[in-house]
Amino acid sequence: MTQLHGHHVVSGSELRATFTDMPGPEGHPGWLRRRLLHGIVLVLLVGVIAAGIVGAIAVMNGTIRLPSAAITQTPATLCPTTVFDYTPNNKVSVNVFNATGRAGLAKSVADQLTARGYKVLGVDNTTTSYTGTAVVVSGSSGQAAAFNIQRNIAGTDYYQDQRSNASVDIILAPGFSTLVDAGLVDNTPGKLSCPREDQRIADNSKQPIVPTSK
Q1: Domain edges within the chain
Q2: Which of 117, 129, 115, 209 is closest to 169 using CA atoms?
Q3: 143 CB-near residues (< 8 Å, 6+ apart)
Q4: What is the C-alpha separation between 193 and 214, in angstroms, rounded?
Q5: Closest by alpha carbon to 116, among 174, 58, 180, 170?
Q6: CB of 192 closer than 8 Å to CB of 143
Q7: What class does CATH assign to 89-199?
Q8: CB atoms within 10 A of CB 196
Q9: Could you say which of 8, 29, 30, 84 is the most buried, measured as most Cβ atoms within 10 Å of its Cβ?
Q10: Cα gap 197→143, rounded to integer Å
Q11: DSSP per residue over 149-174, as a string?
Q12: Is the distance from CB of 142 to CB of 166 less than 8 angstroms?
């Protein structure tokens, strides 16, 4: 034992012996359990990150479709659900547009409607991607009148625009042939008809190209 001025001086051999006798972390109670738990947490974390990356790639590639995405792809119905009485013909004002390419058709149909008591505001030619019988267009205040027109022209498709008056536009499409016989017109209450997709030409338009009222 070495002393200096009455104080004990620790030698190198004593210091090494002291640290050699101290237990390492492996000998600490619970050390193995903590190491095991730490390893499990790391594995789970890596798994979650990997699953998130794979899932994100799958969604981007369209392999996985989220429920909300599927819902937004379903077209919502825009057809009015109101039940209308049959408005008398003489209370209905119309514009007649010819989109068939057949010369004189708008004037011919306008004359027939006039004979049935309708007020014809004007006739003109136009174009449309719609391939059914005809498109019937009105504002919200003209829906009852539009219902009347749909009963006189079978197989039409109704669309609503922003006009404030009760006038109705009739766009005669390539599928038009003739008016319903005056004696066979159904004048019982009913709803507007909006077939839409069944009568659309194969193009990228969301809806037929229809003119606004003059």
Answers
A1: 1-74, 89-199
A2: 209
A3: 80, 82, 84, 158, 160, 192
A4: 24
A5: 180
A6: yes
A7: alpha beta
A8: 19
A9: 84
A10: 21
A11: HHHHSTT-EEEE-S-SS--EEEEE-T
A12: yes
What are the tens digits of pLDDT across the range 79-127?
889 999 999 999 999 999 999 999 999 999 999 999 999 999 999 999 8
Q: How far is CA 206 from the centre of its chain?
A: 11
Distance CA 88, CA 119 (A): 11
Q: What are phi and psi of 88, to 5 degrees?
A: -55, 145
Task: Determine the Cα–Cα distance for residues 95 and 142; give it in Å rounded to an integer.
Answer: 13
